[in-house]
Amino acid sequence: MSGVIYWLDMAGVIVFALSGVILACRSRMDPFGMLVLAAVTGIGGGTLRDLVLGVRPVFWVTDSTYLWVILATVGVSLVGFHYIHRLSRGFLPIADAFGLALFTVIGTHKALLLGTSGVVAVLMGMMTGVAGGMIRDVLAQRVPMVLREEIYATAAMAGGIVYVALQALDAPLTFAIAASLSVTLGLRLAAIHWHLALPVFAWVTVPPKYQDANAPLSTPQKAKERVRMIRRERTRR
């Protein structure tokens, strides 16, 4: 099964590197910019995971195959640039969803192998899945997907919990991997398709023309009371 885990890891690197290339093309970056975004997306999350867990050296230093895979992905993308350029805008979040699912399983699995608790393993899986994409989006001057309203990190956390729970129940490794991938990918794709999101908590605001300069809104209670007053005034009219 170590071979299966390894190839899943490589598949995740390819998918995430490709998502970095696509975003670099849309951001009108040169080939070096494409390589940078592909690299930070493909190995950024795993690098942070290894640093937090105290793994020295990090995985891509001991196995340079990861770097060659990223270079090959960028090279093939440059050759087929016109095909990548024609991809729909929905392809990037879908590719990112597959990378998120793969890296969540890899990160959680590696943390458990190092003897961490289940909670830490879930967090490491989530970090492996979301950190690379966060760095990619920041470099491209975009709001990271993990900070948007749609379910993203929550999907990774759910997949990690499923994997840890099945491992604790001594379920077959193949079943645990498949279940975790299905949960993470299913939640993320559902969030993309139906725009599923967690509740948003925000202060109640009042349009400036209804505000009294001498009575600033300092608390949510005062804001709600002001909204009620405005509604009563509109009803009277």
Describe the fold and architecture.
With 237 residues, this protein is mainly alpha-helical. The protein is built from ten helices and no strands. The radius of gyration is 22 Å and the shape is globular.
The proportion of residues forming helix, as a percent range, comes to over 70%
**What is the arithmetic mean of pLDDT?**
88
Span of the ends, CA to CA: 72 Å
Number of strands: 0
Instruction: Evaluate the radius of gyration.
Output: 22 Å
Task: State which percent range the strand residues make up.
Answer: under 5%
State the helix count: 10
Q: Largest sheet at a glance?
A: none
Subunit organisation of the chains:
single chain
| SSE class | mainly alpha
Q: List low-confidence stretches.
A: none
Helix-strand topology string: HHHHHHHHHH
Shape: globular
SSE topology sketch:
Elements: H1 2-26, H2 31-53, H3 59-62, H4 65-79, H5 81-85, H6 91-113, H7 118-139, H8 153-168, H9 173-194, H10 220-236
Provide a brief overview of the structure:
With 237 residues, the chain is an all-alpha fold. It is built from ten helices and no strands.
Q: Any key phrases for this structure?
A:
237 residues; mainly alpha; 10 helices; globular
